Amino acid sequence: MKQITKISLNILFTIGLAFIPYIPSADPPAQAIVTSQDFPAEITKLLNNEAALNGSLAGVSVRSAEDGEILYEHMGDTRLTPASVLKLFTAAAALSVLGEDYTFSTEILSDGKISGGTLDGDIYFKGKGDPTLLPEYIANIAKDLRGIGIKRVKGNLIADDTWYDNVRYSSDLNWNDEHEYYGAQISSLTVSPNKDYDSGTVIVNIDPGDESGRKGKISLKPSTDYVKIVNQIITVDKKGEKSLNIERIHGTNTILLKGTIPIESKTAKEWVAVWEPADYAASLLKSSLEKHGIEVVGKIKRGAAAENMNVLLKHDSMPLSSLLVPFMKLSNNGHAEVLIKEMGKVVKDEGSWEKGLEVMETELAKFNVNTERIVLRDGSGISHANLLPANEVTALLYSVQAQKWFPVFQHSLPVAGQSDRFVGGTMRNRLKAEPYSKNVLAKTGTLTGVSTLSGYAKTKSGKTLIFSVLLNNLMDEADGRIIEDKIAGFLASQP
Q: How many structural domains are present in the chain?
């Protein structure tokens, strides 16, 4: 999951908050970590004595980065839910299958002729999986179409998202996550509102009204009429309660806003996933075309461009080596699922979860992962049915060190204690003190009852230890993060 929270709204969603699997909670408080030359004994003592682990399951594996020898394990071969630690497997497989220079493209096609400024035919907006397409890129497409002489499109604007299949959600996505940014629909034609690249979402900005009793002020980024806002936010006195409830009605793009906001409050923001991202992207293009003086006579429709159509324009994404930074640092679920479908498309000519996971499993076997011991249900880790043993996680992390793309993989990992979101990522407020800060590079994971951490810890002498901590059946995920930080701290404190 994506553990970096957006601006906190204290939002209590009306559609079953108690069952939302991703828990945006405070970072664990700084912990004093005992330095010991006998870290196995310290970890065993910790696992035996932590009250938070009573009734829980803990899988722990520590390997030498030099020779892969297992130095410590506790339930290391037991399959446990990995949460977003699964993204380590997705990233490694994608780098191996697609390559670090791989890009996603977006195309504008047509079979019509341009005469006197009029395109006599339909215009096709074809997405090929780019999860980093921004509104400004769409505006540039419109500008460039005007630049090649198009002032009028006589036909329709066709949204083509046939690069992948039409299954929008992974099989185990909880129904009450579908409006959340981390549960957005997966489409090969989709748009992100900003450079966090949460594709298929719109940012809802909520400000207080001019005086108490007035409705709150609502704005959207990007500005769009694709979603309908029902505003029932009431401005209250500055000492009043800030209580915001946001819901998108299933199967629609109607977003209900309810609650109260104090008059002097700062802007509250919430990322809301849209229904049908391809139509959303097409609506933004149509709006941009109109702003650049290009009339579209027809309507927005869904369809598939023919192979022999002329490509009028093409936009390429950033390379995978760059995409991995927001993907892994910010734990972006949408990126993970796109990579799964893209691997399926490239290798088996089918952009589906089924084919993509088959490709991923085949690739993981090349990195000494015993695929008979793992269960893969998606690429992001959002499913509680994903299962990995801690020893298989460390086996992967050891094996990928030999790959030419390993520096890219390593660079994508969150770095403990580094405040820059695109460096520290989900570890930016963890292990901030010396000798842990900068010396623990690890992927985090959180689901309801699950907290995980896996990566690399550099010791005081400069040696590297590979570790995986998978904690399941927790009463409080924050307790799990404290335990993980203690274990990672033991390792970084070694002489």
A: 3
H or E segment and range at residue 9: none
Helix axes 333-348, 353-364, angle to 10 degrees: 80
Please say whether the beta carbons of 216 and 207 come within 8 A: yes
pLDDT at 487: 96
User: Is a pLDDT exceeding 70 seen at residue 147?
Assistant: yes
CB 377 within 8 A of CB 386: yes
Write down which residue in 255, 273, 291 finishes a domain.
273
Assign residue 393 the CATH number of its domain.
3.40.710.10
Strands lying side by side in the sheet with 300-302? 300-302, 157-160, 123-127, 105-110, 310-316
Closest by CA position to 226, among listed 157, 299, 280? 280
Residues 35 and 111 in one domain: no
pLDDT band with cut points at 50, 70 and 90 for residue 39: confident
Average pLDDT over the chain, rounded to an integer: 93
Last residue of a domain, one of 217, 243, 273: 273
Say what the pLDDT of residue 37 is.
54
* Same domain, residue pair 466 and 352: yes
CB 470 within 8 A of CB 80: yes
Helix, strand, or coil (residue 326)? helix
Distance separating alpha carbons of residues 481 and 238, to the nearest angstrom: 35
Assess whether 376 and 427 both reside in one domain: yes
> What is the Cα–Cα distance from 15 to 102, expressed in whole angstroms?
39
> CA 24, CA 455: separation in Å to the nearest integer?
22
The verdict on 426 and 352 lying in the same domain is: yes
Distance separating alpha carbons of residues 18 and 432, to the nearest angstrom: 31
Structural domain includes residue 445:
yes
| Predicted pLDDT of residue 32 | 41
Place of tokens 């290009």: 294
Provide the pLDDT for residue 175.
86
Same domain, 482 and 335: yes
Query: What is residue 421's predicted lDDT score, i.e. its pLDDT?
Result: 96
Percent of the chain beyond pLDDT 90?
91
- The answer to whether the beta carbons of residues 417 and 495 sit under 8 Å apart is no
* Identity of residue 18: A
Pairing verdict, β 152-153 and 295-296: parallel
d(CA 65, CA 452): 20
Length of the chain, in residues: 495
With H, G, I as helix, E, B as strand and everything else as coil, classify residue 153. strand
For the question of whether the overall pTM of this predicted structure is more than 0.70, the answer is yes
pLDDT, mean of residues 185-192:
98
Residue 416: pLDDT band (50, 70, 90) is: very high
Q: Is residue 174 part of a domain?
A: no
- Is residue 33 pLDDT above 80, yes or no? no
Give the catalytic positions in this structure.
Answer: 84, 87, 331
Domain that holds residue 237: 201-273
